[in-house]
Amino acid sequence: MAPPRILLCGDVFGRLNQLVKRILLVNKSAGPFDAVLCVGQFFPDSPEKLQEFMDYIEGRSQIPLPTYFIGDYGIGAPKVLLAASRDSANLGFKMDGLRICDNLYWLKGSGKFTLHGLYVAYISGRQSLHGQQFGTYSQDDVDALRALADEPGIVDLFLTYPYTTNEWPSGVTKGAVTSNISPGISDSSGSDSTVSELVGEIKPRYHIAGTKGIFYDREPYSNLDAVHVTRFLGLAPVGNKDKQKFIHAISPIPASTMSSAEISMKPPNTTLFPYKVIEVTAPTNQERKRLSDSVSDTQYWRYDVSQKRQKHGAGDGDKLCFKFVSSGSCPRGEKCNFLHDTEAREQYMRGVCFDFINKGKCERGPDCNFKHSLQDEGEGFVSRRSGSQNAKSSRSKNCWFCLSSPEVESHLVISLGESYYCALAKGPLVEDQVLIIPVEHSPNTLSLPLESETELVRFQKSLKMYFKTQVKEVVFFEWIFKRGTHANIQRAVPIPLSRASAVKQIFILAAEKMGFQFVTIRSDNDFEGRKLLRAQLDDKFSFFYVELPDGTILSHAIEENEKFPAQFGREVLAGLLNMADRADWRNCKQSKEDEMKVAENFKNQFIKFDPNQ
């Protein structure tokens, strides 16, 4: 598949006629292009241009390509953006743009989304010290973007508008060829260190900015603690008098599809990292209170919760960390500027709507599937408003793994027993990765009746025999979250026989790096080993174990405040197999058609080993 083709544009200043004319011309001569990304001020800078601008907003003129903008300020901005914010289609949690009109999307605040396979991060508007509703961003947005930088995957494009007018990141020209630097950008005064800090943390492949009034294509520079380079592009305003370039075409291959050799290539003109390295200060005592329980890959966000904070008398500040509330963890840890509120976390776990917890109301109203009242202790985990149904049936109905649920991916099922079934993994680390899943809605495999172990072990032995014909061994592991809903052995991962001897050592090394030691179980047979595992399980703690090809079991009980990645097992095996880019399952998604083909092929080969045939 050909890489996406993107047009980058500087400050528009409401000159949509001129922008559209250029887009059509470039698209005809060098296209087709997939999208347009605009940086700098998008709305008019004078009342005379407002009518031209509103012709597009109100549908009298058309924007030819999907166009995304930051810099949400200028003449007419409050009216247009307020209407977009109230549009029912734009309510809720959206980072891929609020629709303004056909083919025009507002990137509000800060965020990260996927565009034609490219990871795009952004921070919109100018810094606000006065809480303005539009045209600004706050420290909240900066910190949220920093949290997004901790997530797996390389950011392909980073769109910025610095803190004040006519600023680019401090130090951007350091080490660059001086003959390529225009006089308007050679002076480092009036540049912003916060943006350079963000760029240093996010490490995008392309950093695009406007507002300086000129075009600047800097030589690529090396990043600290990353193998890929970053290219900085500064774009001039649309229709500028000096005829500076205001639209620029790129066609980057998404980093998620590149090999490690491709992503680490450095052009001959690559310079050193230009920005000043900022030392991180030690956290205060109040910041230490915000430590997370563990590490997860759930999305981070934040909301104003001043009313809730007053009610419960919580610590300083008035913001909740959505990362912590939704997953029990936050990758920012003690550096997070938002509240890690355990009471809010408990209410969320009982199925209470996140917006209701934070705002006292929910924009989705009756269409929301979660509860709009605080719940007493004892309410079920994520049991949503279920009408006349009991909590268990509600959970099963919405569970991805329950066979009775409309959400189940039944085309991935490869074998069905009485207590367990097998299914291919969605977004697998390797193509023939298998899940062993309880038929009943159970939080983990170790809490099921002892008699069900016979079928589980039979499935494991069948998979071992099947993969042995392919000169492979199998690693089984399970992450047991103490508030989990439906168990699955994550995962039954086949590995080449040549790597089998290294599995134990790489897990032990990974544990040492995380600051803990595994408990080692050695047993003559699988039944005894799992019986010993059951004796270790305590429902007050989360639990991880891995069953190795030589029969050894490594286990670890996770303490309440211990940081432990939910994807630990997958990440370790991704390192073993030199597949770091596949550590995040979201990078490995397949179409349903491809999944069906893989599942059918697996079933045809596995049939002679299937214990249920």
Helix/strand layout:
Blueprint lengths: L5 E4 L6 H15 L4 E4 L11 H8 L9 E3 L7 H10 L11 E4 L2 E3 L3 E6 L2 E6 L2 E2 L8 E2 L1 H11 L7 E4 L22 H4 L6 H10 L3 E4 L6 E2 L3 E2 L6 E6 L12 E4 L9 H4 L21 H4 L13 E3 L1 H7 L6 E3 H6 L14 H8 L4 H6 L31 H8 L14 E4 L3 E5 L9 E5 L14 H16 L3 E9 L8 E8 L6 H12 L4 E3 L4 H11 L5 E6 L5 E6 L9 H9 L15 H15 L7
Parallel strand pairs: 1-2, 2-3, 3-5, 7-10, 8-9, 10-11, 11-14
Antiparallel strand pairs: 1-15, 4-5, 6-7, 12-14, 13-14, 16-17, 18-19, 19-20, 20-22, 21-22, 21-24, 23-25, 24-25
What is the structure about, briefly put?
The protein is α/β, with parallel strands linked by helices and 613 residues long. The protein has 18 helices and 25 strands.
Largest sheet entry: 8 strands, antiparallel
> Helical element count?
18
Mean pLDDT: 78
- With strands numbered from the N-terminus, the spatial order across the biggest sheet is 18-19-20-22-21-24-25-23
SS strand fraction: 15-25%
What's the multimeric state?
single chain
N- and C-termini, Cα separation: 40 Å
Shape: elongated
Which runs of at least 5 residues are low in confidence (pLDDT < 50)?
163-167, 187-191, 278-317, 377-397
Radius of gyration: 27 Å
Going by helix content, strand content and strand pairing, the class is: alpha/beta
The portion of residues assigned to helices is: 25-40%
What is the β-strand count?
25
Descriptive report:
The structure is a single chain. With 613 residues, the chain is α/β, with parallel strands linked by helices. An eight-stranded antiparallel sheet has the order 18-19-20-22-21-24-25-23, with helices on both faces. Helix 15 packs across helix 17 (568-576). The longest helix is centred in the last third of the chain and has 16 residues, at 453-468. The relative contact order is 0.08. Residues 163-167, 187-191, 278-317 and 377-397 have low confidence and may be disordered.
